[in-house]
Amino acid sequence: MSGDILSQNEIDALLSAISTGEMTADEIKKEDETKKVKVYDFKRALRFSKDQIRSLTRIHENFARLLTTYFSAKLRTYIQINVASVDQIPFEEFIRSIPNMTLLNIFEVPPLEGNIIMEVNPNVAYSMLERLMGGYGESSGKIDNMTEIETKILTGLFERSFDNLREAWANIADIDPFLAEMEVNPQFLQMISPNETVVVISFNIVIGESSGMINICIPHVVLEPIVPNLSVRYWMQTNKKEPTPEQSVVLEKRIKKADLPVVANLGEGSLTVEDLLYLQLGDVLQLDTAYDAPLTIEVSGIPKFTAQPGHLRNHMAVQILDTLIGGDDEDDE
């Protein structure tokens, strides 16, 4: 038997089945030992791990924030975009899930092979078009009768939107996306095999009073060369490029010209609030350091040197005596 704890009703049912002859103890043992089979659909081959899907989610959450800023500036209205889901499904299932008439922007992303599809719900597309043409953003949803002017306006809007994808993908790949074509009927898309695995990132978008979905379909063939870059280990690494010698020289010059506050600490003392209230001109405060003890020089609030006070050309000054041990360590903290 398995290690699960049976309820009293389950125990009574088993004893009843054995006593009536409906089931023998050997049959129960044999049934328990039978290996449980997990159904696997080869048409829905999972090409990406959960870790890689999480990385894609993080990337496109950043893309959603960039798109929000971009569309808000272009449409001059309140825009809200967020990632609704990230799934890996067969390409055929993606085609069946979108409307028969919708706006399909097909992008190429060199140097990666293959195309990326941005599917924009008709409500969203026409709401954007209304805003661009000076309207209030109301949507008719009829995208099958787009004029040449409407197509040209939307093409320019979405073509520039993929500059944000370049920025969002910067940590995993250096791509140069551009719009290859625009389509309205998904049945005309014959990019890849129907059973090819694709990653579909769905965004919820709100434009004023209108709302809808934007789906980005990325075939496995596009992501395959950069799949190792989607691991947590790669994601957590810092990908900062080393500065060139020229950049290093400029950086060093700027650092040398940076201002730092330097304070000569004469000492410290304490007094009560009552004494503070009655302080008058000429009162003397006693410090905790001797008159001939070296002063502490603090740089940006960190003790760095010891020094002795003096004068230089009728100005108060200090002369450095020694470097405080541990000053650099405190700075690192």
UniProtKB/TrEMBL annotation:
Write the record's keywords in alphabetical order, separated by commas: Bacterial flagellum, Cell membrane, Cell projection, Chemotaxis, Cilium, Flagellar rotation, Flagellum, Membrane
Q: Does the keyword Membrane apply?
A: yes
Protein transport is among the record's keywords: no
**Compartment(s) of residence:** Bacterial flagellum basal body; Cell membrane
**SUPFAM superfamilies in the cross-refs:** CheC-like, Surface presentation of antigens (SPOA)
Q: Where is the Flagellar motor switch protein FliN-like C-terminal domain?
A: 254-323
Q: By its UniProt entry, which Pfam families does this protein fall under?
A: FliM, FliMN_C
Q: State the annotated membrane topology for this chain.
A: Peripheral membrane protein
Which family does the UniProt entry place this protein in? Belongs to the FliM family.
Q: What is this protein called?
A: Flagellar motor switch protein FliM
